[in-house]
Amino acid sequence: MINSQLDTEQTDMEEQRTATESQSLSSCPECDGQVTHDEEHGDTTCEDCGLVLDDTPIDRGPEWRAFYHDEQEEKSRVGAPTTQLMHDKGLSTTISWQNKDAYGQSVSPRKRKQLQRMRTWDERFRTKDSHERNLKQALGEISRMASALGVPGPVRETAGAIYRRAVDENLLPGRSIEGMSTASLYAAARQYGTPRSLSEFATVSRVKEIRIQRAYRYMSRELDLQIEPADPLEYVPQFASALEISDEATRQARDLLRTAKSEGVHSGKSPDGLAASAIYAATHLTNEQLTQETVGNAAHVSKVTIRTRYKELLEVYTADSEVV
């Protein structure tokens, strides 16, 4: 939004400059006739005698074209792009931590103290009230957890937007910033089809899993987040990569889950538990023989869950094979 406004202002200034240049040639040097500037063709001509005074004007506008607002935002080079992961969306400026002048030379101790005081006041003015301090702390937590989990950039931006919605809807009173920020990141990962288990988020969060669960349910209900139930098949690639199993075992795990879904066995069950059990079963069918403890540690699922779901998957798969 700011970028488009700056581009518009720059275009207006260029048009005013062009108009001023045209006005300087108010009369034709040949016949003293009226001189006009054709914006479409870029010609400066006399209306009376038709003399062309200038046919090569300088175009001071951008060298690119944009037909949509999103395209204009993407191509614009006026300032850094805005981001949802900063409380001011990245529109403010910061004083560099380096104690050097414009020539790269170190400043004197007196100037160094002055710069430090300026940095302190600059940091205070960037967060003027409790609302901005809340956002700064929460968005910092989202960035920290996303980096620890290796979450892609679009998911982080979506998490920041979800948390901002929660703040605007006044959902924070009575709830911890850490719990709501973790729930925002979890919801964003679900929306993008790259789900992670709550246990994974709990390992990098500063709150317990039960509090993340409650915050997510509350936020999803109040903000009416359209999030579909997680598909167990979406967990297979990350579990398979963490356990370094073969492609054959990965395909077998997918087949087990597809069979379970077709029979409705997945309904009401934890998707990450089903995916972990399918991988455990697949490794035994392909003679890779991973233990329940190994799979459980990689998937953050208990051995009891793996044993229970493993039996259910094999029963359905065996029954389906006999029918075929």
Automatic annotation (TrEMBL):
Positions annotated as Sequence repeat: 140-223, 234-315
Keywords carried by this UniProt record: Metal-binding, Repeat, Transcription, Transcription regulation, Zinc, Zinc-finger
GO cellular component: transcription preinitiation complex
InterPro entries: Cyclin-like_dom, Cyclin-like_sf, TFIIB, TFIIB_arc, TFIIB_CS, TFIIB_cyclin, Znf_TFIIB
Listed Pfam families: TFIIB, Zn_Ribbon_TF
GO biological process entries: transcription preinitiation complex assembly
GO molecular function: DNA-binding transcription factor activity; TBP-class protein binding; zinc ion binding
Ranges for domain TFIIB-type: 23-54
Amino-acid positions noted as binding Zn(2+) in the UniProt annotation, renumbered to this chain: C28, C31, C46, C49
Disordered, as annotated region: 1-44
Zinc among keywords: yes
Function in brief: Stabilizes TBP binding to an archaeal box-A promoter. Also responsible for recruiting RNA polymerase II to the pre-initiation complex (DNA-TBP-TFIIB).
Family: Belongs to the TFIIB family.
Protein name as annotated: Transcription initiation factor IIB
Protein's organism: Haloarcula nitratireducens
